[in-house]
Structures
1.
Amino acid sequence: MSVEEIATVKSEAPEGRERKLVIGVIVIGLALALPFIDSALRLNLGTKLIPIGIFIILALGLNVVVGFAGLLDLGYAAFFAIGAYTVAFLTSPSSELLRALGAPPIDFWLAMVVATAVAAAFGVILGAPTLRLRGDYLAIVTLGFGEIVPLVIRNTPQWTRGVQGMNPIGTPTVPGVQFGVATEPWYFLVVAIVVLSVVLTARLRDSRVGRAWAAIREDEVAAASMGVNPVSTKLFAFAMGASFSGFAGAVWSSYLQFIDPGQFDFSVSIFVLVMIILGGLGNIYGVIAGGIILGSFDRILADTISDVLQTIGDATNIELLRQADVNRARSLILGLALVILMLVRPEGLFPSARRKMELHAAEESEVEAAQQRSTLYETQR
Amino acid sequence: MLGTFATLTVLTAFGAREGGATPWFGLVVALLVGMVFCGILNVIAERIAYRPLRNAPRLAPLISAIGVSFIYINIGLFWRGPAPVLYPDILPTFDFVNDGLGIPSLVRFTVKDLFVVALAIPLMLGLAWVIKNTAIGKAMRAVAQDREMALQMGIDVDRVISYTFLIGGMLAGAAGLMYGLYNNNTNFVLGFTAGLKAFTAAVLGGIGNVTGAALGGFVLGLLGSLTVTYFGAGWENVGVFAILVLVLVFRPMGLLGEETGEGR
């Protein structure tokens, strides 16, 4: 048994593991049954569930960067855009790149792999020079990068068709399944990728590099002096996060069949960030929960609430309610959510145990902490 | 963004309209109202959203700040709607080079340009003076260097930080008036790039250095304009952010800054 395996077994007690497995199976079962429930109840959620799923993939990827490695990335949508545009370049009949090369559109799956690799490469390119910087500086640089990418897309219409956007885009090929207007195949594809992402990120977290991320996040100097190479460890986190974003982008562009730079602006990065902070930084299940809560609010509940308010307004003749549109207050709600979360529950709704400890340790003074440690020691004896 | 909106409201109240006469008194009132409005808003935001997080990990106040900026954006959206807002062109169109000196030239230096320079320079000098010579400025520098030590020396850290946010907000309000009068339009997402550019300028010049910030802003503006001239209007922000990345990578202390230990 290798050192990593021992650590993994130790970190999760057998019962905890079993319980997690049962919950996981139930959640996956529910997710798989959802389209059938949807069609039985005629909720028409199909088209809304897929974007939510794709955003959950994004959230899982960003969780690697922000949650595991503690690097605040505010330009995450840039990698999403890079993934989406790479697939569009390689599979769209309207792609100028293919025209210039004189090549036919390539298969979606291959394009998706390329998109993932390209996004990861950009993660390294952005990360390499900036990772020596401390937290808030890194955040600003990634923010700038997130701004640059859509701008470059806008400004190079000869390749990207600029604000006109690109379409159509190649679809996945699976024998016997038609990826077209019907939402079910897309839904199952997204669920499969979410499950795969969960397994991947969970394995990463418990691996040697995952523990290195945690060490760097908590104390970079101490980690470095224990032999963890901060630069390569952080770079790997950046590349991993970017690659998740890259293949989320691939599925996104293929599902929508149309992409333009407006789909990848700053608010997307923040939306995903709020998802993982709401759910609980660093906790994979919390991140998924945050994604589902925020995604369903954004795609389903906001419209429903607006409709309800407008109906009340029509009935009671109150002009303000009649014109109510929750979507107009979207950034207000996002902003309030961020501030209130930071003030009230910075660890999110479903925090990882370690993150909770970190965030609350800072509130206590050294003396109190020492006192608590000593009482804890005594009760243990 | 809120600075442009607030000053626009005051100017409109003083009867400013496109191409109309210049309400000089209104301008002064607008400047004061804009500065006070933004200053107080900033202090309130600090009290509610940042102060409770003072001892939290670094990411927490940063995330909270992003939240606050989103709230501002939405306030702007509710206030003036999503479309770009016209800011009346009320300054005289007199051009000192062509009209004043009588030299026919492509170079122009209009009242508008003079207005921006004439307002910005006293503000910068005033800020430098406050930070260098007043008790509160001295306290600010102390808090920036070592908050705990400043506290031990009897400095009321909360009060000093409140003042810092007040001054910062007031300068942003003044900048709002200048931006609006110079560009004659504003919109509700203006502050996002403006904030990024301000940060870039401050980093470029050297964080914590007023002269550096002024120099950084100047250099950044020049580089931005050159980018527009040589690459096209769409590339300006690309150029600005590229500069930000390059500065942070190669000279994190900025052009005039000293090693603060922040950058590395």
2.
Amino acid sequence: MKKNRKRVSVVILAGLALVCLGALLMSQKASAAAEGKITGTVKLNGAAPHMKGIDMSKDPYCVKQHENSPAHLENVVVSSGGGLENVVLYISQGLPPAVSNQVASGQPVFDQKGCMYTPHVLAMDVNQQYKVITSDQTTHNIHPLPNPLTGNIPWNESQPPGAPPLIKSWKAEEVAIPVKCNIHPWMHGYFVVVKGPYGTTDSDGSYTISGVPPGSYTVTAWQEEYGTQNQKVTVTAGAPAKADFTFKAK
Amino acid sequence: MAKIFAVTLILIAIGSAIPIVAHIWEPAPDISTHGAVIDEQLSETMVEAGLSFLAAQFVLAIFVWMFSNRPENAKIGHFPGGATAMVLAGFLLVGTEVLALGIFGTKAWASVYFTPPAADAMPIQVQAGQFAFYFRYPGPDGKFGPLHPNLINEANENFFGLDQTNDQDSKDDIVTAEMAVPVNREIHLLMHSKDLSHSFYVPELRIHQDFVPGLDLSLHFTATKIGKYEIVCTQLCGLGHYNMRAYLYVYSQQDFDDWLKKEAALQ
Amino acid sequence: MHDMSTHALHHHAPPTGFIRKYIFSLDHKVIGKQYYGLGLVAVFTGMALSWLMRLHLGWTNLAIPGLHLLSSTGAPGNVMTPEYYLQLMTMHATIMVFFVLTVAPFAAFGNFFLPIQVGAEDMPFPHINMMSFWVTFVAFCVLISSFFLGDGPALSGWTGYAPLSAVGSVAGPGQGLGQVLWAASLAIFCVGQLLGSLNFIPTTLDLRAKGMSLARLPLNVWGWFITSCMALTAFAVLMPACILLILDHVAGTSFFVPSNLVINDQLQPHSGGSTLLWQHLFWFFGHPEVYIAIVPGMGIVSHVLIANMRRPLLSYKVIIGCMFSIAFLSYMVYGHHMFVSGMNPFSALVFSFPTLIITIPATIIVLIWIGSLYGSRLRINSASLFALGFISMFVAGGVSGFFLAQPSIDIVLHATYFVVGHFHLVMAVAAIFGIFAGTYFWFPKMFGRMMNETLGKIHFWLTFVGAYCIFMPFHYLGLAGNIRRYQAFSGYMEPLIPVHRFITVAALITGAAQFIFLYNLVHSRFWGKVAPENPWECTSLEWTVPSPPPFDNFGGRHPVVYHDPYQYGVQTESGADFIMQDSPETAKPA
């Protein structure tokens, strides 16, 4: 009897030790993952293309929302300093599977405001839930058009004024899924579905990708008109890596 | 109960006629050159249909009143003339009435469909697609450039699929989301559909035509009154059908020229 | 004409067992009741859908409690989306036109009473007859199943115009599998009705009792006979059209889709098809279909009126001639649905003339009905009230046809609420009144009990006044340019919304009144006053058999017919003012 009790205690202690070791290893990984960053700016080299105005006259409500600030296409949005907005940056190569399969926290929000999509481009992870809301008093219809070969399933749902948010997610990578409103044909945006950490440039063209563990990676920048560009980057603990991109105007 | 039926029926018949006679709801005033004949046809039909409706309901009501609650052994009467009278009434009264309407109606139809547009009619192209109308003006060269459906890209507002880089005729084409025409100028409207069946209807202009995918159709009309009118889609085309409209502006020649210049600058 | 009453026709033994008696029954009477039950379920479903539609049209962003349970994508936060409105509309119309208006006056009453009225013990092909019901039932289930799809049922209307109905879900929610199920349901329905016609026609031609010449058939039998002939040819065109539509969806064909179509910025993989082909095929069926919906009602109303006027109509032969003319002309008018469709404008004139001419036989029938009232001894009861209401409604709906028959006026009224008012008055009201008249008249024979007369009259008044309140304003809306199949109204149509709200209130009240009818049906079925064999003192053969009739109708005897069905207002030995068709008694000279 005494011998058995001794054996059981050893097993329990060993188990506990293993659990603690595992936790230590995992927390080391987590804290390591929280460390690295990639930052930079994306610029446009050359004259920014003229973004045509949008005639929303078929829906007087939309016209009213833009009485004082006329709407323009947002395919290429360039700041005075040449910074490109709405560029999505993600890590296309080099991430260990554990990190690339991790779903970022939070629910990115896609709003319909003044009969335009805000933001124009929404980045998210595979399986990350995102929220589509409407701030308009006219009915919109959200119709993402993924490539059928990826396995992403298209959907098409309307949101009358005051409708509750639509919570959705995508199950496969796709750069990028065009989104349109069938009722207002000028409304156009993108869902960019990637794996691993990502970032989107702001109005100055600056971006930050957080949560990148130390290592060597390929960062890809995607812009809807200019396509993609890659850069190799190395992230070390404590020092954000820098990756600037320049797209050439057509 | 029979008397209540008779009275109710007469009240309903009169009640139904009141909004018509009082012109409470009617088609918007005609602003076209061919619409007067259509409106005349409509009025005549309203009078004939209205009188037939009232006569039938009244006689039905009166006969129900007169011939119900009769004693069990009351003699069965026969309508003077019997079935022969009814057949004759059907053929002569109704027959001539409907044939007259039909024959005179061909004039109105012919003025829209069997007369070609004038040689100097101004061409405007309209494309219908889920869920908006877009218009194209040929620009100073007077020519429409070719359409390339594979180039259609709504994200870039290339609604017609124009290749303005390579097609010479497309370079000065003016694409708009609203339609404007000069008053008293004949317009040759060239219609095609981008995707499905739609329809073009402007109540005031008295023109109504479906867009048929795969077919290039055309209409011609002349607007005679300056104003803002609605073009509505009347062929069910999907969930946005209810909101598929564009505005038609009938301008003075000067205002039209200014409008066209403004649109050209936005291309 | 020969009659085959002496042939040893298929004398089947009485059915035994619950399944054979009530489920897979070969008895035309049970099949008739099954069709009636299907029609009842369908009409209340269709009516509920119309309530949802009307609420939304009156108050567009109304949150209808519980709607999200019906469809979470179609009614987020209980507010109906534009696509869900169209889906409800499509289902409302499809259910009503097919599963109510074709089933009830034709398949339900026809199955129950046709053999009895000609003096036969059943239809010639009872197994095919049984199949016709169950195939129709399957068609109904297939249609309803589309409600439960992820993106819902089809939204392209009961007319399902291509390419919207042919290109798949890229054109909108419900346009994928929902549209395929819609087309499949209709194709299956066509099979069911074709099987039914295969029984109706030989019953009328070959199974008449001795002495029942064609000239002695009750008018409603002629109505069913003419309708069966139309059904045979019309459904035979709809079925392949639906199959071709399904092939465009699943087999990559392009019967109805031309090339170079761009939807959602994507070039569609179709070429060579014709959009107008669908319209030609559909309306070639569609126009006879609306006469299939009304002709049985004309026959039933004639029969009910005659018994309640105590005199025959001014002319039996003229009525039959008019019904035949209407059926014949119905094949030549279908293009009036396509005046502005883009087909050759000259064809518009070609279709317009027969459309105008069809007014003539329709008018003559109405004139004969009204003229027959003159000098009659009209009895007022629920059945006769609905028959009279039918006449009123048929006239009201028919005169708006004058307008729509003319292409130049169609320019103004096409696709407006004027059209919706026209067809609702003739179909949704007149044809339904025919069903009600038939129900109140024949219920005693079908179930052996009388329906409650007081409830019947309340039902009539609420429905008659209510229906006018609902559908007469549709014409005004149409004249003012209110476009149909819109889920919300804006721009120049916005001032018309108060009219829509009035209509919605009328529709809710009138709809509620139908529950009085339903209660009356159910309550009378079990607890109604026991019915005499011939409560209406009607002369036709169905009133010579017990209420309800035994499984073989005549209890083994072979009736012999001596008279036409309209020996009313005559002097007899017994003092009665009528002589039954199978009575050898002749009228005393006046």
